[in-house]
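hey so i finally got around to running the thing on that chain from the lab meeting. sorry it took forever, my laptop kept dying and i had to restart like 3 times. anyway pasting the input first so we r on the same page abt which one it is
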Amino acid sequence: MVKKIWSISLLIAVLFSCAPSDEELFQAGVDRIESGNYNDAIDYFDRAIEKNPDHTAARNAKGVAYFNMEQYDEAIAAFNSSIQIDSTSYKPFFNRGNAYLEKGEFTKAIIDYNYANSLDPQQVDIYYNRGVALLAMEEYEDAILDFDMTLQANQTHAQAYFNKGKAELGNNMPMAALESLNYAVEHDNRNGAAFYLLGVTEMSALGKTEEGCANLKISLSLGYTDAKEWLDEFCGE
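ok and heres what got predicted. didnt touch it at all, straight out
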């Protein structure tokens, strides 16, 4: 009988020793995010948080999983819980800003991006995403500054050139916009919207019908159907 009790005790000890740690559960969740299994990832993060309620990275990553499923309110709640425990990391502020950006709550997004930037001004993505939010709010000059900061760090960032061009057009700077849009299509020749804006601006600002029509044709060939109206009216298509 003593031997049997000892065996049961040993079995219980082995089971406890084999239980995954909060870090192992967290890493399993990260692996599930990388493979696109977001619901499974959330389950692992919840288990990690249950073991360690102060695991801010698990709370933040849980928000990322919800974000990837486009469940932005749930994502924001997860980012909030991470921030409440530790407000020294830029990541949950940046991620919460992204969720607000997707929801069209641009002012809230910018507030979060500003705070994330104050915590880590070396993060280039903060400048770019804040620029997108500012552009949506028609704060063109500030958006241009953020896209410039992005391009200082990455001179081949095609979307930064494209959005900078849009901001410059909004700020009545067509010549600067042409330069930015030319860089945009140089670095991404599949961006139909960039070819469209480039063509329209060449025609309206410089009167370059031939060049403008050529870019509009490329835009239409890439599936950007707004180009057809300009082609039909000005290019004899």
